[in-house]
Amino acid sequence: MAILEQPYLQLINDILEKGHLKGDRTGTGTHSLFGYQMRFDLSKGFPLLTTKKVAFGLIKSELLWFLRGDTNIRFLLQHKNHIWDEWAFKKWVESSEYTGPDMADFGHRALNDPAFKKVYLKEKKRFCQRILADDTFSQKYGNLGDVYGAQWRHWKTRDGQVIDQIQNVIDDIKNKPNSRRLIVTAWNPEDVPQSALPPCHTLFQFYVIDGKLSCQLYQRSADVFLGVPFNIASYALLVHLIARETGLEVGEFVHTLGDAHIYNNHIEQVKTQLAREPKDAPTIWLNPEKKSVFDFEMEDIKIQGYDPAPSIKAPVAV
To answer: Does the entry feature the keyword S-adenosyl-L-methionine, yes or no (predicted)?
Structure first.
C-alpha cells in the first residue's frame, strides 16, 4: 500500500500559507483558497485519512442514504449518524410549532455558552428521539428537501418526469464508456432556496480508460477540516461500488474544489494534524455477492488495515 493523503495535507498547508481571510454565511470566518485540485490513485489503496481517525461508518451510512434517494435523517439516525442533525433541527426550532427554549443562533451560542450548550444538546437529543419514534413528526421535520438523494435518484423535470441520474450513468458506463456525458449533477437553481443546505458537491463526472473507472468531483464549497475527508472517502467508495457493478477496476478520484476553506475555529486542529506522520492507506472490502450499488447494506462494506492517529474534535459551522 501507499501513503495517499499527501494531496490533502498539502491543501491544508497551502491554505494556511496562502489563504485569504474571508467572511462566510455562518459568521465564523475562514481562511480560503479558490480553485484547487487533488488526485488520488484508488488502485494504491483507499484514501481514508490516517493523520486523524475518520469515522468510516458515518461515510458508509451517508452514501447509502444518498443512493437510496432518501432525504430524511431518520435513516441516518437509525445508523447512529448525526452529521445532518443540525440542519433538520434548525428547521424544527424555527417553525411555529416549536415551543421549547430559545434556540436562535444555536450553533454559535453553543460554542461560547456552556450553560446554553447543555440545553441545546438536550433539545437536539429530544428532537432526534422524536424523529425516530414519531412518523408524522419525522415526515415533517426530518426531511431536508431536495438534497443529494433526491437529486441523484429522482430529479424532477418541469413536465413531471423523474430522472434517476445514478442508474442512468451506470447504464451509460456499461453501454457507452467513451461518452463525455457520464455526469451526475446535484445543483438545481430552482430547488436551492428550499434546500436545508444547497449541494456543496455539485457535479461529478466519470471517465473510463484501460478498463478503469475514474471520477472527478466539482465541490463548490469545501470545509477542509471536517467535510473534505468525508467527501474524499465517500466518492472513493462510490467509485468502488460503481466499478464493481460495471465490471471495471478503480482508477483515480479527482477532487476539484471551488471555495476551499478552513474555519477560523479549526486552525489549531489542522496544525495538530499537520504535525502527525501519515501512514499507509487502508484497503476496502466489498461483499463479493453484491453487484448492484443499490443492494449494498452497511455490513457489505468494510475497511481493512486502518490504523489512524486519534480523532481531532472541532465544531460544525451551521
So the answer is: no
What homologous superfamily is domain 6-71+146-304 in, according to CATH?
Thymidylate synthase/dCMP hydroxymethylase domain (3.30.572.10)
Judge whether 200 counts as a catalytic residue: yes
Site of grid cell 450553560: 115
pTM higher than the cut 0.70: yes
Q: State the catalytic residue, choosing from 147, 200, 236, 254.
A: 200
Mark the binding-site residues for dUMP, compressed into ranges: 25, 180-181, 220-223, 231, 261-263
pLDDT at 318: 60
Beta strand ranges found along the chain (DSSP E): 20-22, 30-41, 155-156, 162-163, 183-185, 201-209, 212-223, 249-263, 283-286, 301-304
Instruction: Decide if pLDDT at 197 tops 80.
Output: no
- pLDDT single digits (tens) 36-69: 999 999 999 999 999 999 999 999 999 999 999 9
Domain boundary assignment for the chain? 6-71+146-304, 85-143
